[in-house]
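Wed. Picked up where I left off yesterday with Coenzyme Q-binding protein COQ10 START domain-containing protein. The coffee machine is broken again, so keeping this brief.
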Amino acid sequence: MARPATCCCASSLRSVAGSRPARLIFRSAPCRTPIIPRVRLSLSAAAAAAGGGGGSSSSEPQSPPPAEEEEEEEREEGIGLEIEVSKAGTKRNRRVVRARVRVDAPLEAVWATLTDYEGLADFIPGLAECRLLERDSSQGFARLYQVGEQDLALGFKFNAKGTIDCYEGDMESLPVPGEGARSRRREIAFNMIDGDFKLFQGKWSLLQEHHHQATTLLSYLVELEPKLWVPVRLLEGRICTEIKNNLVSIRQQAQRRTTLHKE
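Structure written out below (tokens, as returned):
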């Protein structure tokens, strides 16, 4: 989370640079099976890190660095998947990633999938371990320990780990402008308090519109900055791939949960 995998920690991320970026839009067929994942957070904080210890890697990822002033966006329109990366203010080594996907399942099913913390590693490919260290249901608090792992070239592996605090918000009822109906929204904020990132915080947001009771818009927002010895441009591509795979995996699991419930 850790993983962009899934989870969450605390925070509101609102200060993102406003310089006019070039846009790169890639279109591809809908992704039905999650592919290589990693830098774990998942939500789990998929997902999703501030603080402490360092990670280990036998080899640095060799993804080509993107242009410094670019904002990248990837879309898969078949499942409503969108991912956007932008620089965060004046911090050269910090990025803000926004992503969302449409899930053909009610909000409750998506929520149950995200908060099944100890089960996240069962369906998120890049999440090697997700341990629930502490939980206070009355306060909507959970502390997770997550380990992500990715295979690199020549048999090397890239590992990332972290301790993530998650804060589960209450259900919100939102008025629909011009209509008498209301939409529902629920969020999980997350913050990595110890791990392989200097900063890793954001939130998961689940929105169910009144006219789409069987569909949920799952959104993910994270602001991240690796430890000083890891240039974020080297990890950017892998982080985006990880987030994409996490979203697709969560989508599939929530839809599977819904199908089983109907049966």
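Quick read: The helical segments are 107-114, 120-123, 232-262.
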